[in-house]
Amino acid sequence: MLQIALTLAIFLLAVIPAGTYMYHIAAGEKTFGDPFFDRVDQGIYRLCRIDRRGMGWKEYMGNLVLTNGVMILMGYFLLRFQGRLFLNPNGAAGMGPVLSLHTVISFMTNTNMQHSFGEEGLSHLSQMLVVIFMMFTSAATGYGACMALCRGFAGKREDVGNFYEDMVRVTTRLLLPGSLVIGLALVWQGVPCTFGGNVTVETVTGSFQDIALGPVAALESIKHLGTNGGGFFSANGASPLENPTIISNLLELFSMMLLPAACVLTFGKMASKGKQGRAIFAAMAILFLAGLALCYGSEMAGNPRLAQAGLQGPGSYEGKEVRFGIDQSALFTAATSAFTTGSVNNMHSTLTPLGGMVPMLHMMMNCVFGGMGTGLMNMMMYVVLTVFICGLMVGRTPEYLGKKIEGREMRLVVLVLVLHPLLILGFSAAGAVLPAGMETLANRDFHGFSEILYEFSSAAANNGSGFEGLEDNTGFWNITTGIVMLLGRYVSLAAQLAVAGSLLAKRRVKASAGTMPTDNGLFTVLLVFIVYIFAGLTFVPALALGPVAEHLTLWF
Amino acid sequence: MERKMSDRQEKTRLLTKDIFKSSLLGAVKKMDPRYMLGTPVMFVVEVGAVLALLLTVAPTALGDSPQAVEEQNLRLYNGIVCGLLFLTVLFANFAESVAEGRGKAQAASMKKTRQDTGARLLGPDGKETAVSASLLKRGDVVLVKAGEVIPGDGEVIEGIASVDESAITGESAPVTREAGTDFSSVTGGTTVVSDWLKVEITSQPGESFLDKMISLVEGASRQKTPNEIALNTLLTALTVIFLLVVATLYPFALYAGVRLPASAMIALLVCLIPTTIGGLLSAIGIAGMDRVTRFHVIAMSGKAVEACGDVDTMILDKTGTITFGNRLAADFYPVGGKKKEDLIDYAVLSSLYDPTPEGKSTAELGRGMGTRVGEMEGEEPEFLPFTAQSKMSGVNLKSGVRIRKGAAEAIKEMVRAEGGSIPEDLDSVVSEISGWGGTPLVVAADHEIYGVIYLKDTVKPGLAERFQRLRDMGIKTIMCTGDNPLTAATIAKEAGVDGFLAECRPEDKIEAIKKEQAEGKLVAMTGDGTNDAPALAQADVGLAMNSGTSAAKEAANMVDLDSDPTKILEVVEIGKQLLITRGSLTTFSIANDVAKYFAIIPAMFTLVVPQMQVLNIMRLATPMSAILSALIFNAVIIPCLIPIAMRGVKYRPMSAEKLLLKNMGIYGLGGILSPFIGIKLIDLLTAPVLELLGI
Fold it and tell me: Is A15 exposed, middle or buried (0-12, 13-18, 19+ CB in 10 A)?
């Protein structure tokens, strides 16, 4: 408990300067590294012939899709032909077409769902030019889209910014230096970083074991900083080579939580009313703490059947790393799903039913801080919804930050709100009845259903973690989750940017005593309620047949 | 004013027998699926009802096993579900019909005045032909004599007459209509009581003001407002989400090894989609318009009423709106050592034959202060009326005494010319009165100045509190007046407005509106004259007086039939109330779903997970009774809420935050809790019945 509280307290201290720094990057204001970074940026702009004029939301989105599309194509061919390319000390073969496509989509959409086995299936070149490269660019893309949205909502300028400028500035000023520092710190803690191949060692029992090595620390740092989550190893953050110590664990935890949370404060600064950002931040924090409490409580309560058999210590340790314990495991689980990173330091499938429901719930809400930028964007949809419903109750047509919320905005907002359950529930239904889905389940019970539900929630929320227990490297899973990831990412982004664009074009109305305040505790509480009610009403029946049923049968 | 509003509302009963009957019929007629498509939420319920009907006739049609049908008496159960669903649709349609019915009842009384009347059409040569009023076109000129009904909307081009407008306004006192003034427009259906008028018709047949009013009130030409459209989008989206939830639940349940009965899924769907607000939404809109109409204001569209709720700034004319418009005598100030009694006497004498409000009020005040002047019987003094040139008025008594009252400068000049002296303290008294915002009228008899009458612009009682209430609602008031800044400031202070525009010309008003709008504010204003028309058009909410010119009425988006400018305050409150009602019932409707889940989810899955009974926190008797109870609650809540939809939720001006907290408490928290109680109570009643029926 104390551990969790301390971790979160340190996190809070770090978020505030990070939010200011990100605001300076987004607003083109002075940052400490300007003399150096400006020169780098200028070089890049000149080299790529980037025209840095402001864009409308359509142009911004168009360039975003185009850039991401080109990267997907490049990544695809790299994976297909990695076997014939250099930096392949372990001799990984070229990847199959469906798995290749799934992998690039997964990384480009900031999902990092891995149906391949990282350390075996990928060459070092692929790890760097596909995985690590996309970890940077997808995070920068998410950040860019988010800043464009914030500019639209804040309405301080005519355009939503320049996509390329956003990408470049955040990469040079935040992602690269940040990753470098975190990477070095991880190396200090014992995370390997090498171009060398696997080593074979003689273990204490006298047998031989292959130890996979590679540019692990380089991947690990941006994996968390950019809320990506794909592991170098398939065991992800539970593997001692990715996450060897409590310090590396904290480092990874902080780095994945930092930027999504800072985005919210950045928005607050952009709207030049810091309080607006704080109200949303508080709502996210409440949602997060509630999830964390449920997960932690459930893990501490453990499994009554094991307790009866006298097999249980304090709480449920199944599937957890002893070096992290229940505290750091529950915190990591809650964080990785809330911040939709998707790296794991314990096996989510072996969490207690309600403990395992928490990450599902976080991904279903998809706005509890959320992924790099996209979390705030999703939350803004809920903000608009809250303003709409509650705004009416003060007797005015609803408005947010001085802009009226009308039919067009509502249509776009509900598109985002419908899309998410459509992807999760629709595809889960297919997975639950089609033999192609059923055959891959490790368990054909409520838990198996949770596996399906988790997989699609993870894909739709661009989280990427797996419940595991699912034999997911099949055509069915690769294709369905691929579609879900693509739609979940780009359709949402487009609709969200359209909302921002639509608001930007509106006449600003002035706030008065009759306007619903959106920067106080009451609004925070209402926002939390709206998120719970909507996410709850949408997913309760599905959850009832998954983790809830599992919990009830276990305890009653 | 406030009392008037509540009086009116009490007078109209929610439901008369006639309206009830016609609404029942209307509710059935509206079951036409083509009509239902307009409200997607209720359309889904109707489709569900048809499916349930199918399941009643052929219980195995949608995959339920014959064995289950036999064991659980599914046919009867499906029949009950079907009945409840149709009832839900019927209740929603009934709500809409009642709202329309109340409007129609209003319109009917108006229609009576539209019986086809004859008209004297004047040809270009001045020849009179008798035609039917319904044949009159724009530009025709008609003659209307005393006792005749004015055949159409128009402008008086010649003549002056008193007109009885009670058919439209309900006010029995006749009003004067005169060519070439601000009071030159007449409305079809009103009656000339005395004299005659030559009227140029300004409306095409079937498009007269009365026609428009009737169709608006009937709800025939009702268009969905932007906010209604946005809300409808949300409700439709919720419906789609719940369709998705229920549709995917079937395969989920199959996976878990249970085949959900089709009727249970339909019931779950209908319980979850926002039927309460979906069913009441259009009724709320119609009733909102109706409330405005009952208040004798005709809104040209529902959008106008909605916009009222958003008003940030009100631009109000001083004269007529804030003050009574006439400067009334408030006190007498003697100068030069004269006695106050003498001053009062001369002031009263000078005013006895003065028909202006200033004169009348002076005489009245003098009498109240004990003047010694009686009615001057027999004596017919010569009365000199006020002119712009002389700037004074007065009487010449038979005794030869000439009494004058008037502007200080004019009187001083006259006295000087006649060799009289000016008392030393006159100037200070005059400027003091001006400083208070009053008008000083100096009284002189022959060449002696006796003192000053203090004329004051009187603020209507209760306005200061009203403006305070507006401030609490976040609405700023700005007063427009032609007065000088000093006078304006005094009145502004007394009335408690937030700002004022002194020496204001019509174009200044437009500038003021534009300035407020540029700051992102919505502006409301009232007006009557032709020169107000551009400002009325520029304002976001323009309320024209029915007594005003037709140009003003065209430009405004609302017309007040009683020509009471202060009504804009009430209209704003009605607008807010409309939006609050919509928001509150939406919140209530969505919040209801929480309890319904607790009723239905355990009921559905108890078969496959017996432990689900833990979630049956209401302890509902059986799965079937749980589902039916939720469904009954869902249906019955609609008629229960009709009164709120019709009358609007209670609204008292207060800050947005307090208002939100209050309404959230009632409709949000209440919306979560009340169905728990309601469903439990219904279950207590239905469970024994169902047991008897063998379900």
Answer: buried
